[in-house]
Each structure stands twice: as C-alpha cells, then as structure tokens.
Amino acid sequence: MSGPEQTDDGRPHAAVVYNPTKAPLERIRTAVAEHERQLAWKPTRWYETASDDAGRAAAAQAAAGDPAVVIVAGGDGTVRTAAAELRDTGIPIALVPSGTGNLLARDLGTPLNDIPASVSAAFTGADRTVDVGVAEVEDEDGVRQAHVFMVMAGIGLDAQMAQETSAVAKKRLGWFAYVTPIARSIVANRLFHLTYRIDGGRSRSTRAHTVIVGNCGTLTGNMLLIPAAVIDDGLLDVVIMRPAGPFGWAQIGTRLTLQSAARRSPFTRRWLSRSPELHALGYVQGRQFEVRFETPHAVELDGDPFGHVVRARISVAPGALHVRVVAPPSTAS
C-alpha cells in the first residue's frame, strides 16, 4: 500500500475526532502539538463529535480532508462510528482511549491512561490491517439496517446490559455499573429460542441466554470470553451461553476465569486444553453468522444498543480497516 497523500506544500497533517464528553482535550492538544513540531507536520484538524449522530459526520469530515492519520479520542462507540466511515479508505485510525471499556484499544495493545504514549503511536507507529464486523439486522416491522462493529455484537444479557446501564453510571463506576443488570439476569435465567447457521450451512436450533459474536475476545476487566478470537484472522467467533440454572452460571464463571488466567499460566493452558467442553458455553466460528428469533430481542454493538430485532446476518470484512499501533521494537543490531 502506498503512503498517505500529502497536502499542497508536501507536508502531511493529522485529524482528530474527539468525543467532548470523554476526551481530555487539552492534554491531547498538548501531545499532538509536540509531535507536529517534531515531525514538521501541518496543523492538525479537529472534529468534535455530535451526540445526535455518534460522531459519524465528524469522522466523514476528517476523512474528506485526506489526513495521514485520524486520531480517535473517545470510547468504543466513537471508535465504532469512525471505523464505519474510514473502513476501505486506506486512511489509518489511531486510538486515544477515553472511554470505560476501550476493548479494541486493549486488544491492539494501545497504551491506556497514557495520552503522550498513545498520541506518539499515532504519529510514529506502524499500520496494521484488521477485520471489521458488519451486522445486518431486521426488526419485527421488516425494517433492515446495516451497522459495523469492531469488538462484539451481543444479544441477550450483553444487549440488556447496554440498554439498562446509563452512560453516567458507566462513566462513574466503570465495570461495576454492570453488576446489578448481570445479577438480575442470572437470577431470572430466561432462555430464548433461536435458529442459526454458519457460512450458509445447515440450520441449527437451540435455546440460549446470551449470544455474542466476537471480532475480539476480551471483555472489560481483562476477562477472556472468546479465546480463539483474533482481530485479523478473517473470522468471527460466536459464543452461545445456555446455562441450566445457577450451577450452569457457576460453570461459565469458572471457565471464563480460567481462560483469563491461562494467558499467564502454562499449567492452566494445558489443563484447559484437556478439559471437556461445557454445554453451557458453546463456541462456533465462521465468516458469517445468520440467526432468527421467535420474538424480538435487543441487540448491542460495541456496547451501544441498536433496538430489538427478529433476524440478523453478521459477517466479517477481512482487513477492511487500517489501524496505527505502537511500532514493534527494532531488531537492528
């Protein structure tokens, strides 16, 4: 891929798309100005997101200026919206994590709580191509819409959490804001019926409490939900939670805890590789996941609610987005 086109005087410029309710703007401006001076780039262009479109217009305006990089300062929702505009453009995005989850940033190894380091990666890092999830959904009136996501699409507990947990609570409490919705959902343990198929194959029916389609595998709190999920493998990983009461939830909780610990413990990894699969926690993998429900169910994408749907087709666009990440260490002697 060729490098970014340059502005009229031969110098590149950066663009910043920022959520004014989340991004520490003055600290970001200071770090950006420092790199502008060091690299002799033209002045950065700044685009504030609007609440009524989640930042889509700001991202489109940024892309129209043909920047060398678009720095996205906000949470997972702001990143998702920017990705919708910048996918397939070849313009890289760089992340300055400013939300509560920052799941994509965590997966890519973007520095968290370190604005100078994340801004430095935006100006001096390496470009990486990653996959983008595409969710085509249909509501009970037959209205169809298509949305992108970068981390996960959720139906059931995950979507209910997104709908019932306020932005204020998430900002003040972080992951703890989800404790009440999770506890309420576990106690009720309502299962719903669904019919699904992978990559156009045979249709299968099951009952589930939660369905999550992941492009990344890690939840807030560094909990590993989908061990096989890799953001640039051209595949989506689906986890179907179908616990049979409190004991099933206990099995799920134990397995997720062990999966998270396995990243640091070879012994735990070996034990998990030999342990039987859980009926309460089923995994499937493919490029396209189609699902139908008997009754409408809430859906969320990267933590944002998108209403109730009766049908969804979720697919992957391999390598559709360029992301500027921390450059690997030099191997030169």
From TrEMBL:
GO molecular-function term, one example from the UniProt record:
kinase activity
> Would the keyword Transcription be found if you checked this record's keyword annotation?
no
Q: Which GO terms describe its biological process?
A: phospholipid biosynthetic process
The record's InterPro entries line, in alphabetical order, gives: ATP-NAD_kinase_N, Diacylglycerol_kinase_cat_dom, Lipid_Phosphate_FormReg, NAD/diacylglycerol_kinase_sf, YegS/DAGK_C
Tell me the cofactors it needs. Answer: Mg(2+)
Q: Which SUPFAM superfamilies match?
A: NAD kinase/diacylglycerol kinase-like
Q: Which domain of life is it from?
A: Bacteria
Pfam families per the record? DAGK_cat, YegS_C
Q: Where is the DAGKc domain?
A: 9-141
In the UniProt record, does the keyword Transmembrane occur? no
Q: Identify the keywords attached in UniProt to this record, alphabetized.
A: ATP-binding, Kinase, Lipid biosynthesis, Lipid metabolism, Nucleotide-binding, Phospholipid biosynthesis, Phospholipid metabolism, Transferase
Q: Which family does it belong to?
A: Belongs to the diacylglycerol/lipid kinase family.
Protein name per its UniProtKB record = Diacylglycerol kinase family enzyme
